[in-house]
Amino acid sequence: MIAEEGRFHIVFEVWERPWTVNAERAGNRWDRAKKTKHWRELFATLTHPQAMITDATVEIVLELRGRLQDTAACMPAVKASIDGMVDAKLFDDDTGEHVKSIVFNAPSRAKQDKITIIVKGRQHGN
Fold it and tell me: For residue 74, what is the DSSP state?
């Protein structure tokens, strides 16, 4: 976490291909629950907030091997990841009051799958 004058910048890197909307639709509710739990618990574990953040922008950067996903296809994994950040108390909630925007960058090719989630915001209460 990088902090300066009440502003915060956190970068999460996960070397894993995130699940997609199409995979969510093709699966059953138990598959969906298992994948949601995985991403939510992963980010709850990765998140060690020094302060609560509000007015946040969440930026998604995907680097993928093989076939590239559609730009926002990883939305289910991102939603579960942000829920994990809420569980870890990085945000009070993930409503528009605290998370102002989520920006999905177009995926790029890489030798290994990786999702980077960049959170920028200000300390809650400032």
Answer: T
Residue 48, SS3 per DSSP: coil
Token representation of residue 112: 């290994």
Q: Are 42 and 81 in contact (CB under 8 A)?
A: yes
Question: Would you place residue 3 in the very low, low, confident or very high pLDDT band (cuts 50, 70, 90)?
Answer: low
User: How many degrees, rounded to 5, is the angle at CA 112 between CA 12 and CA 99?
Assistant: 25
Query: Looking at the predicted structure, is the pLDDT value of residue 121 above 70?
Result: yes
Closest CA to 24 of 63, 57, 72, 68: 72
Q: Tell me how far apart the terminal alpha carbons of the chain are, to the nearest angstrom.
A: 17
Q: Distance (Å, rounded) from C-alpha 14 to C-alpha 114?
A: 6
Assign domain 2-123 to its CATH superfamily: Holliday junction resolvase RusA (3.30.1330.70)
Residues above pLDDT 90, as percent of the chain: 71
pTM exceeding 0.85: yes
pLDDT at 89 over 80: yes
Residue ranges covered by each domain of the chain:
2-123
